[in-house]
Amino acid sequence: MPENPEVSSLSYEQARDELMRVVAELEQGASTLEQSLALWERGEALAQRCEEWLIGAKARLDAARVANNTLGQPAE
To answer: Is the pTM of this model over 0.70?
Structure first.
């Protein structure tokens, strides 16, 4: 497997695209058990990175909604 960038440095789109490649390669069958395990581990890390990005995006949207609702409320 070629040198891969650190998962924690990937954007959501980069992690998602690489995860799709890993899944496709696993579905085709890697040549050795060791390669399959390495791909599986990389895929797990990539899926976790995507989830982190999505959780962060949801938190930002929730915060923006709260701020927007707060701005529209009359002062007490």
So the answer is: yes
Q: Helix (H, G, I), strand (E, B), or coil: what is residue 63? A: helix
Burial 21-47 (b: 16+ CB within 10 A, else e): ebeebeeeeeeeeeeeeebeebbebbb
Instruction: Give the three-class secondary structure for 11.
Output: coil
CB distance 46 to 7 below 8 Å: yes
Tens digits of per-residue pLDDT, 10-59?
Answer: 999 999 999 999 999 999 986 899 999 999 999 999 999 999 999 999 99
Radius of gyration of the chain (CA): 19
Domain ranges of the chain: 11-71
**CA distance from start to end of the chain:** 61
